[in-house]
Each structure stands twice: as structure tokens, then as C-alpha cells.
Amino acid sequence: MTSLGININWESVGLFARNISNTTTFDETCQVIGNFIIDSIGLEYCMVFSQEQKDGVYIRRSLITRSKYSNGIIDFPVYLKSTDAFERIKKDVCKIIRHDRSGFFESEPMTSGSYLVIPAGADEFPYACIIAGDSGNIEIASGDKELVRAICSIAAGALAKFQVVNNAIAKDNSYQDLNIDQSRQLKNINDKLIRSNDELKQFAYSASHDLQEPLRTISNYIGLFFRRYGSIIDNEGKEYLEYAKDGAERMHNMIKDLLAYSRLDYIEEPMSEFNGEIMLEEVMRNIKVSIEENDAIVFYNDLPGDMKGYQKEIVRLFQNLIENAVKFKGGAAPMIFIEVKDLKNKWEFGVTDNGIGIDKSFHDKIFQFFSRLHSSAEYKGSGLGLSICKKIVEKHSGEIDVVSFPQEGSTFRFTLAK
């Protein structure tokens, strides 16, 4: 029997809170919940049932399947009284994934066995019921259950906002003549949604921020242990310590980038006017060591002298793109070309390199959160660099895309409002 145990990763929980705060529909929220649970624990399927406020009736289901049977989302309405819900669930799941019902569900909910059933919200009246499991002969470890519990606690708030909206819509249909009251209700609902999203974003920021101190402690003790006992540790032990040190460093960089991404929601400095040439000179000073170590050459001229925006973030934008060009270099020394066009009410920039390039099928994926096309052993990084770039561009009312082919380099084009 295989155990699927993991330790709770509070950074991942913070990331989940940020992702779910950006969802706008029930289906999208179910997809985020299901994908996170499946990816974190490695299970085969996840179902999310929402619950109507009256009579304890489950009214909707999203089933996300993976691995052995299919990849995708199956959405359809279902009406289940809470008393017979689990028997119907067993039958429906077996039918959907074409698995023999015999021996499929071997345990009660929340004990060792092949599936978990957890309420999202108060036990006496959950907003939803989340069911995750696998048709194989597995044992769901206690650490996995606690992770799902943490996810369900966050998911309850996100699912609740859709219940608030649905209840308001139903009430509006019954009292269409009360226009003034209706407007007031919609405003209250909107205010609640804004507060809910702000709280989830703040949770993601706080969770990432609070991880830094224990991570520093881990790194410091690894260094202390190595200095004090390094002379008596064999090569295998030293190798293990290097793994731990490298893991701590990668997590530090990931947290740093996650915080940078979170702070883009709360930029305190006002927009200002600045000289593009001076801005790029600051970028080049920041990455001077990397440029020299890789024999890279950056070509640019005639950048705008009257740019406007959040200068610190524009510096980060150019720095990320140039560092990516240096990191993903081909066989030759990196050559980066920066150009700009005046498009009346906006500037269009292009950053072109002679690196390894990107297959067209991945052009959209590279801007997604924690997206990596290569392992950390091949190329270091958090997978957040281009996500940060995209968000910075969007904060300046612009767009960003890429033109690239394998082994032919890449050109990242983006616009910034004047």
C-alpha cells in the first residue's frame, strides 16, 4: 500500500489563497481548488459540491479528473439530500471513471483509505463539500489531510462569496420593483467581495512574509552545522547538507519573488516621470556581475527621456527580462538588443536575445504563476520572473507577449502608457 504523505507547505497555502482570490466564477473556483488538491497530494480526482441554503441539498458538482482516465473538468448539476449523498457519490464516481465499484471505497471519510470527505465551512452548515481520492490501493496520510483541511478553510470564504451573490440574485428576481433597495444590496455585495479578495491577498502576503524568519533560521543552522562538524562528516553527509542548503536558497528566492509579486497590489509610491536612459543605467549596475560573468553584451540607444510610471517596478521589469536572456543563453555569448517605438499614447519596447528560444506551444504558459519549462537543476529560478513582468506591465496599462522559436532566440514586446 502506497502512502501519499507530505508536510504542509505554508508557502503553497499562501499561493493557493492568492490564486483563489482572483477567481470570478464558481466553476473557476472549483477548478483552482481541485487542481491544487490533486497536484499537492497526487490524487486522481477531486469533486466540489456546493450546498443550497435551504434543506441541506447539494445542488452542483465539479469533478476534476487526472492521470489514468482523463484530464479535464466535468460539470453538471446534481441534487443530493445530505442523507444519501455518499452512496450516490460512490455510484456516480465509479460510473464516470469506469472503475469497478467492488473494493473502490474501502474506508470511512477522514480515515486511512482511498478518499477524503471534508466540509468547506462550518460543520453544521458548510458552503461546500470537497471530496478527493484515488481508485488505486492507497493510504491518504495525516499530513495530506491537514493540508486539505487548510485548503478547505480558505476555500470556504471564496465559495461563500458566490453563495452571497446567488442569494442576492434570487432576491432581486423576486423584488424587481425595488430598484433603490436592489442597488443598495448590489453595492453591499460588491463591498463584501472587495473585502474578501483583499483579505485573501493580505493572507498570501503575510504567509509568505512570515516564512522568511524560520527559513533564515534553517539556513543559519545548516551553515553552523557545516562549520562545526564539516571535518568529521563523510562525503555523503556533506552532499546531503548541500542539498539542504540549495533547497533553502531556492525557497528563499521563491519567497522573495512571491513577496515582490504580492507588493504589486499595494504600491505606495506615486507614479513619477523619469529618464529611460538613466533608468536602464541603474538596471545595468544591478546586474553588472551577471553580465560580466557570462560575457553578455547589451545594445540600446535613444530610450525615452520622458517616461512615466512606477520607476522601481520598471527597473525590475527590464532587469528580469535581461537576466532571463542571460540565463537562457545558447552556445554563443549572450547578445541582448533593446529597442523602443513611439505609438502616440504609449511606448512599445522590445527585448531581443540570441538564446535557446521557446517553443510556440509554451508562449502563453511562461507568463503563468510558478511556470517552469526547465528543471531547477538546469536553470535556477522561482518560475515567477515573467509573472512579475506581466503584472508590472498591466499596472502600467500595457500588454506583453513573446515571439520565439527554439534555438532562434526570443523577443519580448511590451507596451507602457505614457
Which key terms come to mind for this protein?
3 domains; Heat Shock Protein 90; disordered N terminus; alpha+beta; 11 helices; Beta-Lactamase
Sequence-ordered SSE layout with sheet pairings:
Blueprint: E1 2-3, H1 10-21, H2 26-41, E2 45-51, E3 57-65, E4 72-81, H3 85-96, E5 115-121, E6 126-133, E7 138-139, H4 142-174, H5 179-210, H6 212-229, H7 235-263, E8 272-274, H8 276-286, H9 288-293, E9 297-300, E10 307-309, H10 311-327, E11 335-342, E12 346-353, H11 385-395, E13 400-404, E14 410-417
Helix pairs in contact: 1-4, 1-5, 2-4, 4-5, 5-7, 6-7, 8-10, 10-11
Overview of the molecule:
- With 418 residues, the protein is an alpha+beta fold.
- The chain has eleven helices and 14 strands.
- The chain has three domains: 2-199, 2-Layer Sandwich (Beta-Lactamase), CATH 3.30.450; 212-266, no CATH class; 272-417, Heat Shock Protein 90 (2-Layer Sandwich).
- It has helices at 10-21, 26-41, 85-96, 142-174, 179-210, 212-229, 235-263, 276-286, 288-293, 311-327, 385-395, and strands at 2-3, 45-51, 57-65, 72-81, 115-121, 126-133, 138-139, 272-274, 297-300, 307-309, 335-342, 346-353, 400-404, 410-417.
- It is globular.
| Rg | 25 Å
Roughly what percent helix? 40-55%
Going by CATH, what is the homologous superfamily of the largest domain?
GAF domain
Overall structural class, as computed from helix and strand content, comes to: alpha+beta
- What is the element string, with H for helices and E for strands? EHHEEEHEEEHHHHEHHEEHEEHEE
Q: Which regions are unreliable across 5 or more consecutive residues at pLDDT < 50?
A: 1-8, 66-86, 93-113
CATH topology of the largest domain: the name is Beta-Lactamase
CATH architecture assignment name of the largest domain: 2-Layer Sandwich
Spatial separation of the terminal alpha carbons: 61 Å
Indicate the multimeric state. Answer: single chain
Could you tell me the strand content as a percent range?
15-25%
Describe the biggest sheet?
A: 5 strands, antiparallel
